[in-house]
Design goal:
The structure holds 6 protein chains of 6 kinds. By secondary structure, chain A is mainly α. Chain A is built from 7 helices and no strands. Chain A is globular, with a radius of gyration of 22 Å. The longest helix of chain B has 32 residues. Chain B starts with a helix and ends with a helix. Chain E is mainly alpha-helical. The chains are: A mainly alpha, B mainly alpha, C mainly alpha, D mainly alpha, E mainly alpha, F mainly alpha. Chains in contact: A-B, A-E, A-F, B-E, B-F, C-D, C-E, C-F, D-E, D-F, E-F. The interface between E and F is medium-sized, with 34 and 28 residues.
Chain lengths: 182, 122, 108, 161, 143, 96
């Protein structure tokens, strides 16, 4: 009962926030609402017993990516062009895609079903981690050890993305203005 | 009826995903597109995390006195995806900055107009 | 038993103040007055809820963490509020005043 | 002992206490040594940022805070009840006003504490701080009179000098 | 934002040391509670970004020069890969931490986990700071 | 039971803040509402930790509070300086 009430309240608020982002014309407002959306989804992740993801989502979604969007706005423009007419095509595409996806969920295991096929691997991890590692956090153990290659790849992707940003935005020395403002 | 009600989590998450998608394809503003992509991404994370849930279980950080734990695997996959997501978002934003420097605007239709004008001239 | 009642009272009072602040955010007439409504939720609303949780937790390291959250909120929220008020002021927002010659509305 | 060293040692102690309280593993030598290394690293980095001084580590005023904080909390509680009553009453008896007060503290830290205390109390917000003049926005005339009586100013001056 | 005194004193001077320490706490308690390299890296990076926000990019660059950020980003990945290579040299497979300690497999697993989390944390925080610096620095020079 | 009620109250407060954020009318109103929304999520997390009986997750609430603050500081920096990269004006604050 508790679970359902809270789930429905939080999910309703999430949906409202998502709609608010679509409605928001001010770009700064949209960026901040994006952060708020991350916060809320992180809260729901905690309710769903995934504290590690919630932690990351809160730190990344609400903190760092908001700052990045704001920094971009500060060097481009903070004004968005007003949309003149309502477009029908995007709505049609979205409704159609959504309908297909919902049709696809009909065969999915129920929410919270302990017998769902996904859990087969997970249960094995849960059994093996305490014996092989003697540490309490199963997520860290799976992340670092059983899925160590994965994580290595992801770290490399982060580094590559950082290098990409530096390549795109780094000013070459000859570009620097003669008069330095300091 | 109760068959279908157990799936409400997926439906709302799909609604959230579609909101993000709508934002991406309906707006011409590049920064709003990035915001839409971020919303889409956060919703996909939610989809995976809801799959990992087990009724009556607790988070997969072992404590005394609890026997059932939720599935750590979706958590692990999404954990790395989030950080990669922010890094790629940053690349998208960097591209936006460069586009703004080249065209003087971040509105898609204005960029298209300029491209078109160049084609006609050249 | 007594701790349960105490923490319940604190939690309900905190929730009441938080709600009041939210209502104030909707009802109050302009930006500067709305800040007072938001301050309501950030001070007593937050503190009472945290206090209720502390009483429920008993005196352990959990209490210490709750105190730290409270301290952090007490440090950051006025700072953010002040900076926001200042930037609004510097952008030329003028506060809403009572119209000339009108008395302060009173209760009842 | 020079002041910089004193502040550094004090900050290190604070950091160590914070680590122990967060961690809760007081018998794990690995985590304790990692904690010591972390505290030291943060201290060095913060010193490099030139943040360790009387403002960052306000040693002088910490003992006096024990007296000031309860008084401030009581003020905040009173102001909260007042503002909540005004928001909920159907006709909303508010009378916003804007005025300047003089802060009699001698240094920045004192003024910061004073301005933050004003903001923390619902009903009054410090909008702008210029030198020792603080521009305050109040929700009601009564709250404004409360600030102009300057009891908080006197107490903060006693706190920070 | 240096002239907004309240922000300077409260956020930077009082909070910043504790934000950075909190990030390290999250880093090293990844085995015991929620947390680990990714989260800690982001929080540490966010703390350094806060410093840059309040005191300006130049001051931030003085404290941590660009070459340090860029090498740190690479060093993190190298630590991660290096642990794998050391495991191979000790006769195990790539990233098989159990062999890191010759006597106790569990202890070896522990060491490996802490080291790779450290590598992840270093890379993530350095990349976050580098991206912020690139975005913020662009505005200064281009106009 | 009480905890669920408190959570509901916090969520309603958040919804009210969201209404203010969409209504505006000025950008400052939106930022004020969203900042308040952020501090309410901190409380929500603290309460959730107690309802699911895992109080060792309170670290998350601390992290939320920090991140919310950093986000707001970034927005305000955008307003007070019109950007992130300009050199700082060296005035009274710097010397003391």
């Amino acid at each position: 009962m508790f679970q359902q009430t809270v789930d429905i309240l939080v999910l309703g608020l999430l949906a409202a926030t998502a709609l608010a982002v679509v409605r928001m014309r001010t770009l700064i407002g949209a960026a901040m609402l994006m952060g708020i959306y991350s916060f809320l989804s992180a809260s729901w992740m905690l309710i769903l017993d995934a504290p590690d993801v919630a932690f990351t989502e809160a730190a990344v979604g609400a903190g760092v990516s908001t700052i990045f969007v704001l920094a971009t706005l500060s060097i481009t423009t903070i004004r968005a062009k007003r949309q003149t007419k309502f477009q029908f095509a995007p709505l049609a595409v979205v409704v159609l895609t959504g309908a297909v996806l919902i049709y696809g969920t009909l065969d999915m295991p129920h929410f919270g079903d302990p017998e769902a096929p996904v859990h087969r691997v997970g249960n094995r991890y849960i059994k093996r981690v305490p014996e092989e590692f003697k540490i309490p956090n199963a997520v860290t153990a799976v992340l670092g050890s059983y899925r160590g290659f994965d994580t290595f790849g992801e770290t490399t992707v982060v580094l590559t993305a950082g290098l990409g940003v530096l390549c795109l935005l780094r000013k070459r020395r000859e570009d620097e203005p003669k008069v330095v403002t300091e | 009826m109760s068959e279908a009600l157990g799936l409400y989590n997926y439906w709302i998450v799909i609604f959230l995903m579609m909101t993000g998608l709508y934002l991406v394809i309906s707006t011409g503003n590049l920064v709003r597109k990035v915001v839409g992509l971020n919303i889409f991404q956060a919703s996909v994370l939610l989809l995976y995390v809801t799959m990992g849930r087990v009724d009556g279980a607790t988070a997969p950080i072992f404590v005394e006195g609890r026997e059932t734990y939720t599935d750590p695997l979706p958590s692990v996959l999404m954990l790395t995806a989030i950080v990669v997501g922010v890094a790629t978002t940053a690349v998208a934003l960097a591209l936006t900055v460069r586009i703004n420097e080249a065209y003087g605007t971040i509105e898609e239709d204005e960029i298209n107009e300029q491209e078109h004008a160049q084609e006609l001239a050249g | 038993m007594i701790t349960d009642v105490l923490s319940g009272i604190c939690l309900i009072a905190g929730a009441f103040f938080a709600l009041t602040g939210g209502i104030g955010l909707i009802r109050l007439p302009d930006f500067f007055t709305r800040m007072h409504g938001a301050a309501l939720t950030d001070t007593l609303g937050a503190w009472l809820i945290l206090l209720g949780l502390m009483i429920a937790a008993g005196f352990t390291l959990v209490t210490v963490k709750l105190i730290m959250i409270g301290l952090l909120l007490a440090l950051t929220s006025p700072t953010a509020t002040h900076a926001l008020a200042r930037s609004a002021w510097e952008h030329g927002r003028k506060p809403w005043m009572l119209p000339e010659g009108e008395d302060v509305p009173t209760d009842g | 002992m020079s002041r910089a060293v004193k502040h550094s040692i004090a900050l290190f102690v604070f950091l160590a206490v914070a680590w122990l309280l967060w961690s809760g593993f007081w018998d794990n030598p690995l985590l304790l040594s990692l904690g010591a290394v972390s505290c030291l690293g943060v201290l060095l980095l913060v010193r490099r940022m030139r943040l360790v001084d009387a403002e960052g580590v306000p040693l002088k005023i910490l003992p006096k805070l024990v007296v000031y904080a309860p008084w401030l909390i009581w003020e905040v509680v009173k102001a909260n009840v007042d503002v909540a009553r005004r928001i909920l009453s159907p006709r909303m008896p508010i009378s916003p006003c804007l005025f300047e007060v003089k802060a009699s503290q001698s240094d920045d830290l004192g003024r910061v504490i004073y301005a933050n205390s004003i903001t923390l109390t619902p009903g009054t917000i410090s909008v702008h701080v210029e030198g020792d003049v603080i521009l305050v926005h109040a929700l009601t005339k009564e709250a404004a009179d409360g600030v102009e009586e300057a009891e908080m100013d006197r107490r903060v001056t006693g706190l920070a000098g | 934002m240096r002239e907004v005194k309240i922000l300077r004193v409260v956020s930077a001077k009082t909070l910043l040391p504790f934000i950075l320490l909190f990030a390290l706490y999250v880093q090293f308690h990844g085995d015991f509670g929620p947390g680990g390299g990714f989260q800690a890296g982001v929080i540490f990076g966010a703390g350094l970004i806060l410093h840059a926000l309040v005191f300006g990019l130049n001051e931030s660059r003085r404290v941590i020069p660009e070459w340090v950020i860029e090498s740190a980003a690479a060093v993190g990945v190298l630590i991660y890969g290096g642990v794998g290579v050391v495991a191979m040299l000790k006769g195990g497979k790539f990233l098989e931490y159990g062999v890191l300690d010759a006597h106790d497999r569990v202890h070896g697993q522990h060491t490996g986990l802490i080291l790779i989390e450290l590598g992840v944390g270093v890379t993530v925080s350095a990349v976050m700071l580098a991206i912020y610096g690139a975005l913020a620095g662009r505005g200064r020079l281009s106009t | 039971m009480i905890l669920t009620g408190v959570m509901a109250a916090i969520l309603v407060t958040m919804a009210l803040a969201l209404v203010r954020a969409t209504l505006g009318p000025t950008l400052f109103d939106r930022i004020l509402a969203l900042n308040m929304f952020g501090t309410k999520t901190v409380l929500l997390i603290a309460v959730v930790c107690f309802t699911i009986d895992r109080t060792d997750f309170l670290d998350l609430a601390l992290a939320y509070a920090l991140m919310n603050f950093i986000g707001v500081v970034a927005v305000l920096r955008l307003f007070l300086h019109k950007g992130f990269g300009e050199p700082e004006p060296d005035e009274e604050g710097a010397s003391s």
